[in-house]
Please model this.
Amino acid sequence: MQQRFVVAALVGLAVLAMSMGAAAQQTATNAAPVVLSAKDISAGDTAWVSISTGLVLLMTIPGLAFFYGGLVRRKNVLSVLMQCFMMMCLVSLQWVLFGYSLAFGPDVKGVIGDLSWAGLQNVTADAPSAYAPTIPHQLFMIFQMMFAVITPALIVGAFAERMKFAAFIIFSLLWVTFVYAPVCHWVWGKGGFLAKLGALDFAGGTVVHINAGIASLAAALVIGKRLGYPERMSPPHNLPFATLGAGLLWFGWFGFNAGSALAAGGLSTTAFVATHLAAAAGGLTWAVMDLVANKRATVLGIISGGVAGLATITQAAGFVTPMAAIAIGVIAGIVPWLFVSLIKPKLGYDDALDAFGIHGVGGILGALLTGVFASKAVNPAGADGLIYGSFDLFKAQCITVVVTVVYALVVSFILLRLVDALVGLRSDAQAERIGLDLTDHRETGYTVLD
Model:
């Protein structure tokens, strides 16, 4: 039954794509004309964004896959690797067929893109776009594809070890279409209403981290706790795997943040430096928090703090000074630590790998701190924050946080309930005890030889 639903969903996706392709043909004549040409393309910028695209791909597979995979129990490691790899395959096709057009296509009332670019109609490799005037339009498309891939993959951390694979596929496809694409258009799309409001998001603090983090909270609440949580839960089965994944995430994040400058130059350097400093400050601060509270600094703590610093600086990376980036990293090592170590146990929800505690909380912090530390002296295309005497940006950031949190929470909750009604969200108790590697995939991550 579940397999039939997955096949039906994929067939429906193909039919929808064909209908959108036909609609795109009809609306192509109404699309805004391309005023840029091949002569505007910079070889250096094209090379930098091409490399950055590969770096962001690396963040999902193998970076996030190994980070999450090392944190689960050994009987579920393959299920996490499979989920991350499936996201790369599934969302890449959705993005080309219609996702990119919904997120970045010609604006419809500030809410969504139209279907002029479905199936990559009017998205060429020989001319740039208004989004990135010095690189080919298709390169901008595939760079943004990697953001669309990793965002739903982050949600895996909330429901790890207990969601059916069929439910995971259907939910992820619906979520990236009905949650990611609209929020992306609001913040980054030409004409998006949050962009018009003056909200700043350099590399995805709102679009990726708040969005995925809030969906993670919804998923954890809807799907419920793992069997035995928290009394009989095992520690991470392979911290070296998780540390490797965290290191790959840090490495790939330079493409995530510095690549979002969409050109090689001073702005990409600013984002590169801010990214590194915030990650370093976050990791160090989390380790110190562990040392003070628990008398020991831990590997799990320092890699969690590093990722929290990365998630929190993402919004601000191209708008703040190096010292502000360090301050943001320190805050990222304190507040998410409080959520993960103190608040989550008190509230009792089972965010298995702290997707909400790190990415959701970090994303919200990053949005607000951008409104505090952003400086037009760093990036004239940005705005001045509170410490530079302006309240307007902070107000816009607060509105953006509220809108994104409410929308992501409500729609994610609806989609989770819908999928639960269709195929059931959660694996049965026996499958959960055995492990999803065997029950979903008939494989095991570790073979014991006689």
Remarks:
- The longest strand covers residues 107-108.
